[in-house]
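BUG: 3D viewer hangs when loading the predicted structure for this chain

Environment: internal workstation, default settings.
Expected: structure renders.
Actual: progress bar stalls at 90%.

Input used:
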Amino acid sequence: MTVTVVVIEDEPAMRDLIVGYLTRRGNRVAGCGTLAEAAQALRVLQPDVVVSDVGLPDGNGATFCLENVRHLPRARWLIMSAESDMLRHTRILVMRPDAPPFSVVDKPIPLRALDDVIRQAMLAVPPMRSAAN
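Structure tokens produced before the viewer hung:
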């Protein structure tokens, strides 16, 4: 089963690394450098997994994910940052009682950790999606 992933990362080398790894693993992957690009990708692709950096040129990736989770209730969300203050703030954000389950990790992310998120998505995604979703 193919899992659709949107990767939101403004550093081209890191984005290419993650997108390349996930693509080689058989996933359908779109890389986005900004939240504006990511918003378009979420609407078009309806991904099973979203991997997002926190510090992006046009906003906060964690806030973006929290704002978009209601549109993709079955998606798995992985938020990453290399900055400890941003990670600390993000962990507080996702601990709110109304926050959906997110994984928050330090960057650079071990690529094998992405496999766990993909496996979780494969277990959660129904075999067929209707056109209404």
